[in-house]
Specification:
Number of helices: 21
Distance between the termini: 48 Å
Strand content: 15-25%
Number of domains: 3
Structural class: alpha+beta
Shape: globular
Oligomer: single chain
Largest sheet: 20 strands, antiparallel
Length: 689
């Protein structure tokens, strides 16, 4: 079985849309049964209410629109096929749970691991290395070095072993559904019999447990599934120790449960406090690093080629993010959806003698997003766009904090060398990046997106801007940098100079150019010029464009986006004056917005338009939109240079105007706290007034 972040999301979607049943309060909350090593968790407290509320939303109505019916039926078929493949580990499909759910339904992914055993293994390894060194009469200095090296080796080995651990768990409250649960148990037995699995019955903590073993085949290892029913809970797991832990929690809770994990507890408590007496329709939690390791383990260790960014980010202090989770509410008052999320990332604990005042360590120090009440759209942001994001950011601090992560990715101490090369190399721009650019960067960043028609893989446009304290000085720096870059083309519009960085070959994989940088870092990459025949057309869309305007350094994916932004705005042609933007801001203020670090607004119909059309055309793998690129990374083909297959057939989709009328505006705000970040968002109906 393979499990990925995307497939876990599909499981969540199935829980949202595919199950219904009577509501009941579970005798034991799932989080009190699951182990503390749980890294992914989604729970539906009341499936019947969830289904009813979903059907009340415009998104739910979209799914039952007659014109959408052919696509929806095909989508269900495709999702069911994917779910069946994902659920081979436990011998049941999500649709099987419909008849047995009497209360909470929970899916979890855990990473079984004994921390105490790990510590003992490291200690034993180091002791053995030190004993060998002493036997050879090594000096105290040599022994100390050997001890450090042995400790590092042992820790690396233990980390590798831990990353290979994974377990899937399904917990279903079967209150009032005892007969149905036994029927499902028989169905599971029949399903495993078809797979020629061997069955045994074991008694685990006085609970009769069906154990199925599927023999190893091809590249699949031997698999096990454990099915038990105890105290109105159907428990399905693929790991014996995890099942043992769950059963032990019923009568003698050991405290080592998910409920006791600080990241989970903080996310749930903060969400509950915000919702008050209102019960959530869905709860979820993810520990990002552990969850990614589990997903890889189920994919038999497969990861993207090249630098392993998971471990780079962990090494660079981003593991300060210990968990993310929250509540989701559907069709509540004027809201289609309300979500409250908490990112738990408390300040790192410093070792004795470490007097650093920094909240985080190494590159993670760039996560400095101060709160303020001034995140309204600047006047230059146009009324017509797909999405708007603005946030406060200590950019100068982020620049210097990036040194360690740049060096780790490069595998050498290159950060300072590159800056020095840009400053002194006679063949380069000879710019002092720190004094002539970084020193002028402000503390607020803005990103906007839209698209241009006709819809194509390159339609989505993105523009990023950061305020600067001396626009003239920054423009001078840009000019000097671009003049020495053979890939840059100078353009003029009104009183502005725009530099267009041409992408000669969109299929060429960029590589970091360190010895003789042609630019000073707008994209930080350079490519070799390909050999092409004269008649071959240039790419229609440039790689990027840059200018300074409205007191901002502006970088865009398309030069024409900058030109559009530089056009004179007519009265009322600012986003801040748009009625739907104002409605979303009022809704967010009702939810508590006002002194925040991030503010986001989106016209959902416009944000999904390119994806919808690409899916309908069967060209999603070609899409250069943010979502398209993300999916391409997730579903990267094994063979380099090949295009991935589209995962969902959109050929039955109707014209986009059918879907547009169901997709309203939405947004979210983020507030920086001492222990992390609160994220609160909503989606409104299309006809909100």
């Amino acid at each position: 079985m393979t499990v990925s972040v995307f497939r876990f999301g599909l499981c969540c979607l199935t829980l949202l849309l595919g199950l219904q049943g009577a509501a009941a309060i579970a005798a034991q909350p799932a989080e009190s049964l699951l182990p503390a090593t749980t890294k992914g968790f989604v729970s539906v407290p009341d499936i019947g209410v969830l289904r009813d509320r979903w059907n009340e939303t415009q998104l739910g109505q979209l799914m039952v629109d007659e014109k959408m019916k052919p696509f929806v039926e095909d989508l269900k078929r495709q999702l069911q096929s994917k779910m069946n493949r994902a659920d081979t580990q436990l011998g049941l499909s999500w649709s099987d749970l419909e008849s047995v759910a009497g209360g909470d339904v929970c899916l979890a992914l855990a990473q079984p691991w004994d921390v105490e055993a790990e510590a003992k293994a490291i200690e034993a390894y180091v002791a053995k290395a030190v004993a060998a060194a002493k036997a050879k009469n090594k000096s105290e200095e040599e022994i100390a070095e050997i001890s450090r090296d042995a400790s590092a080796e042992a820790e690396a080995e233990q980390k590798k072993l831990r990353s290979q651990q994974r377990a899937m768990v399904v917990l279903v409250d079967t209150t009032g559904k005892a007969d149905e649960a036994e029927t499902l148990r028989d169905k599971i037995a029949a399903e495993f019999a078809k797979r020629q699995a061997t069955k045994s019955v074991q008694t685990i903590l006085d609970v009769s447990t069906d154990v199925y073993t599927v023999a190893a085949k091809d590249d699949q290892p031997e698999r096990h599934a454990y099915i038990a029913i105890h105290q109105d809970q159907l428990i399905a797991a693929d790991h014996a120790e995890v099942l043992h832990h769950i059963l032990s929690q019923f009568d003698a809770p050991a405290g080592q449960s998910l409920a006791a994990v600080p990241a989970f507890r903080n996310a749930m408590d903060k969400s509950q406090a915000a919702f008050g007496e209102t019960a959530p329709h869905l709860r979820w939690f993810v520990e990002p690093f552990g969850y990614t390791e589990i997903a890889r383990a189920y994919d038999q260790g497969r990861r993207r080629r090249g630098t392993d960014m998971l471990y780079v980010l962990a090494n660079q202090g981003f593991d300060a993010i210990q968990g993310v989770g929250g509540y989701v509410l559907l069709s509540e008052d004027e809201f289609e959806i309300i979500h409250r999320t908490f990112v738990y990332a408390p300040a790192v604990e410093r070792a004795a003698g470490d007097d650093s005042s920094e909240k985080y360590r190494l590159a993670a120090r760039m996560m400095d997003f101060p709160n303020s009440s001034l995140l309204t759209p600047p006047k230059w942001v146009p009324r017509e766009l797909a999405s708007y994001l603005s946030f406060n950011w200590n950019v100068q601090k982020a620049f210097y904090a990036s040194e360690t992560i740049v060096n780790e990715i490069a595998g050498d101490e290159v950060f300072r060398d590159v800056l020095e090369s840009i400053k002194t190399d006679p063949n380069g721009p000879q710019i002092d990046i720190e004094k002539e650019l970084v020193a002028y960067l402000g503390s607020r960043a803005t990103m906007i997106t839209d698209y241009r028609e006709p819809i194509s893989p390159k339609s989505e446009r993105m523009l990023f801007a950061i305020d600067v304290t001396d626009p003239a000085a920054v423009m001078n720096t840009v000019n000097r940098a671009m003049e020495s870059d053979p890939a840059a083309k100078k353009r003029s519009f009104k009183d502005h100079v725009i530099w267009e960085i041409l992408n000669e070959d969109p299929h060429e994989v960029p590589t970091l150019h360190l010895d003789n940088p042609g630019g000073f870092g707008f994209d930080g990459f350079d490519t070799e010029e390909p050999e092409v025949e004269e008649e071959e057309e240039k790419p229609m869309i440039p790689n990027s464009a840059v200018t300074v305007a409205y007191g901002h350094l502006i970088i865009a994916s398309h030069v024409d986006y900058i030109v559009d932004i530089l056009q004179k705005r007519e009265a009322g042609d600012q986003l801040a004056e748009a009625a739907d933007h104002e409605l979303v801001q009022q809704a967010l203020e009702k939810l508590g917005a006002g002194n925040d670090s991030f503010n986001f607004f989106a016209r959902t119909d416009e944000t999904v338009r390119v994806t919808y059309e690409m899916m309908k055309q069967g060209r999603m793998p070609e899409s250069e939109s943010m979502l398209g690129k993300t999916l391409n990374r997730i579903f990267e083909p094994e063979e380099e240079g090949t295009l991935r297959e589209q995962q969902i057939d959109g050929g039955e989709l109707p014209d986009f105007d059918v879907a547009r009328r169901y997709l309203g505006p939405g947004g979210f705000f983020v507030r920086t706290t001492e222990a992390g970040w609160d994220i609160v968002g909503c989606l409104l109906t299309k006809d909100s007034k």
